[in-house]
Each structure stands twice: as structure tokens, then as C-alpha cells.
Amino acid sequence: MDYTILIGGEAGQGLQTIGGVLARLFSRMGYHVFSHQDYMSRVRGGHNFYQLRFGDEEISSSREKAHIIVALDLATIELHKDSLEANGIIVYDAQFIKKTFTGPEYLNVPFDKIAVENGGDKIMSNTAAIGAVLGMLRMEMTLLEEIIHKNLKKKGSDMINKNIMTAKAGYNYAVNACTQCAFSPHIQDKSGHMLIDTSQAIGVGATMSGCKFYCGYPMTPSTGVMNYIASNAHEHSIVVEQTEDEISSINMALGASYAGVRAMTGSSGGGFALMAEGVSLAGMTELPVVITLAQRPGPATGLPTRTEQGDLLFVLHAGHGEFPRVVFAPGNPDQGIHLTNKAFDLAEKYQIPAFIITDQYIADAQWTYESIDTEDLVYTDYRLRAEEGAEVEDAYKRYDFSEGPVSPLAVPGVSNRLVVVDSDEHDEDGHMIEDAETRVKMVQKRVLQKHPLIQKEIDPPLFYGNNKPDVVITGWGSTYGIIKDAITLLGKTHNIAMLHFSQIYPFPLTEKLDYLKILSGARATICVENNATGQFAYLMHAETGYKFTHNINHFDGRPFLLDGLIGEINECVRSI
Questions:
Q1: Does 188 fall in a domain?
Q2: Beta strands in 93-203, from DSSP E residues, in sequence order
Q3: Same domain, residue pair 358 and 437
Q4: Which of 148, 247, 302, 423 has the most CB atoms around its CB within 10 Å?
Q5: Strand-by-strand arrangement of the 496-501 sheet
Q6: Residues 286 and 345 reside in one and the same domain
Q7: Number of domains, the chain
Q8: This prediction's pTM
Q9: Could you tell me which residues come within 8 angstroms of residue 417 by beta carbon, excluding any fewer than 6 positions away?
Q10: d(CA 81, CA 94)
Q11: What digits encode the pLDDT tens for the residues 56-100?
Q12: CATH number of the domain that residue 59 is part of
């Protein structure tokens, strides 16, 4: 069983409400759910859609065809009618869009009329639409009533009852009117699943890693992380600050880190560009900080609400001068939690900036899980606190290189240690210097000695599929789910496997998994990326000397869809 529902309309019509409630509903019923959103950069108007897929087996991508299209405006019908599955249904309100369609693929449900007659207000037309979808699927209404109770409990019992009546009326109308509906979703005997997006997952990972300060300036699509942390800030004693710009964000995060707490900031491409000097300051002062970068198409403002993987090389080289960093790119919420935890740990352990890269697609996409194992999350306080080493406080040197590349990091204000940092090159005490000898020692400590230690902490790519593949598909970050689903389907007829990189830099060694041997043993190796220039393929070649035989690149601002990617992979395979 595998169904796709697309809800389309203008911004402000509530399509996210319909899609969000249906996604929660299906996940609570025990189905696997995956959803993604496509929206324009405007508050009202334009064409947006919310697409969700649900089934009784694991799902981690979207498909091209929809079984049900909920059209809240005429444009949705015109734009998506060719994406309707055979025996699929387009449900719409003819009176609202002022046009009637005939044929077995159309179902006219008067959402507005149902809302007015049962709830007293057209504002409940979305509730009628949700009920109608459940009626088309012949699903029961109990869980929807529970969700309505929870969502509207602050608005009182009268509003709750009106919405329930409206949903039931929409349900009954669809059951009676949709005689052509042949959908038969299996009844799940499982308990409900967790529904989470990767922005929320990064927020969870930060909270569980001891983050106590988050600051940022709102910028699509990075704001979801800040929203999650802010919504839970009081419960977990986290200070959240909306700054006046991204320059302030990076510098406030570094100030909080200097003061002794785990700090985080985030932005998208244009905002991150303003942080570049502050990133370099983190490198020189060796202050730990975690930075999220949610990519969108550039350059400049680009397509501000679309998706792309165009900032990988930017992150790898952001900040002037040479200094170490770690770069992670989660491919799903599970990785989002665990890689955020690892980013905080390595940032503190090696006193470096750590980056978590997402993009609009993966930031907003929702996944279901029965559970996410958090037992292996770590928290180690690497800083020197007041009670430690009190007898040698006068001997403390912030940048001492006698014991190795990682110097002791004391917290100012909680002991008698004098903690000095300087954006100029400095000596072991943190005071500015100009001599060549000290400069060489500091660069060796800060860059050349740290990098190999950090590289040993980096895990290899995830390997999935045939153990001796003829074809290997490689991706990074947000392409995880789409490639995994493609491998699952193609594996029935091909000797095919996937290598997915989520820990990007330092580039993983081959000791734990010889991915270069896997690639070299295949007849075709295909790198799949949402950018024009093949940035990860370039990085792979630069770091290892390996060059992929094929590249599949999308750069139209839209994510890969499962059927299209399978077609492109098959085309590459036919060419060998």
C-alpha cells in the first residue's frame, strides 16, 4: 500500500494546515509518512503545494504521481492534473473556483457551503476538506476528532464541536458522492509513529547536547531550528536571542562560548555570508561554536523558498585563513539529532567551529519513526571549571602547546584564571605577537596537528544495497532518502548499492569502510546532487583522486522525486 496526496493552493489558504493534520493523522494511525513542501516567497497568493506520501512500509521520499489532489484553487488543477495517478481523484469546490469539471477523475465537494452550514463560518472549509479526504479513503474519524480537540482546546468546546461537525459533514459528503473512489488503505494494527522534520531534529539534538544559547536572524529556510529551540527554551533553560543581523549572531554566539556555555547560531546562504569574518574569529580564538546552514538557491537572494545543495564548498572554505572545522550534512531527522550531538562534542573537544548543513527540502520534510534511539548521545564537559586545578591557576596558559594541539579551555569568571583571547596571532598566554617563530608554532598546533585527530573521529559513508554492486549511487545530505528508496526498488533487478555521506569534512578515512574499493569495483558510479557544478564530486576527486563515471545534477530549485531519479539512473546504466 502506497498513497500520495497533494494539497495545492495559494499562500494563506491553509494548505499547510490540511497537509499537516493529515500527516499527523496518518502517523498516529501507524502508517509510515513522508511529506515535503513547495512554496513561493510571498505571504499570500502564488501557487504552493504540500505533498505527503503514506503507506505500510518505510517511506523516505516523494513520488511524481498523486492519488488524491486537493485543489483549493483553479491553478492547482491546471498545474497538477497531469500528475494524477490512474484512478486518482481531484477533489475541489466548484462554487469557490467558479468552474466545474466533468469526468470520473473529478469530485466536487462544496467545502465552503459545508463549513457555513455546520460550523457557521467559511474559515472551517479546511476542516471540511480534511473530512472529505478521510471519506474518500474510507478511514475512521476518531483520531481526527482527538486532533481537533487538542488543536482547539484553547478556543473552547463550541469551536471544537463546530469543527467536528464540519469534518463529519465533509466525510459523509465524500462517502456518498465519491462512488468512483477505489482506495483501500490497509488497517494498521501498529501503534502511532513519531512525526518529525529535520529542523526539529537538529533542535532536539542541540537541546540534548547541552546547548544553552541560541541566536539568529530569521531567514528561510533556517528559522525552523530557532523556532523549535525557542519553543522549548524555558523548559530547558536556554537563552534564545533574535539578533539584528547575522554579524551579530556569530559574534554573540562566540561571546556566549567564551563565557562558558555551549552556543549555536544558524542562517541560510546570504546570512551565512555575513558570518564569514566571525567564523574566522572562531578559528583564531579557538572558541567552540555550532553553526547550521540551511541552503537555498543562490547567488544573492536566488530562489529564497526553494532547495539546492549549492553551498558545500562555501562552508568548507568560509572564513579567511587556515583553520580546522567539521562539516556534517544529515540526510534524515535521526541523523539530524545524532550529528548535531556530534557537532557539539567535536566543537568543544577540539575548540573549533562545527557546521550542520541542511536545505529547504530536508529542513521542512517530515518523516515517521517508531522511535529514535538517543542512548548513544554524549555529553562531556571539556572546559576547566572553578574546582579543577586550583593549585596551578597562576600557571594557566590559554594556548599552551606543550601538551598537544588542544589547549586547556578555562571559563572566565568562575576561577582566578586569567583567560585572554585575541583575534591577532598570539602567544600561549593569548597576547598579540608578531614574531615568525611563535606564528609557526601556533599554526602547527591550531591546524596541522588538530586536523588528523579530528579526521579519525569522522565516520565513513553509509553503505546500503548489494554487497558486490555493479552500480553505486553516491550522494550527500538531503539526497539520502530519495537514493535509498531508489536503491530498494532498483535492487530487485540490478546489482546496485548506495554510498551516502553525512560526515563530509574532514573527509572520512577508508579504515572503517573502504568506500574507494567499492567505487573502483563497480562498472558505473553515479553522483547525485542538487547543484549545477557537482560540488561533492569535486570534493571527492580533490580528497581521494576518485572521479565518478556519471553525474546527475538538478538545479531548478526543486528536489529529486523518486520516479524521475530512477529513470535518470536507468539512463546512465544503459549507457555503460
A1: no
A2: 106-108, 194-197
A3: no
A4: 148
A5: 462-465, 496-501, 471-476, 524-529, 550-553
A6: yes
A7: 4
A8: 0.95
A9: 384, 393, 396, 410
A10: 15
A11: 999 999 999 999 999 999 999 999 999 999 999 999 999 999 999
A12: 3.40.920.10
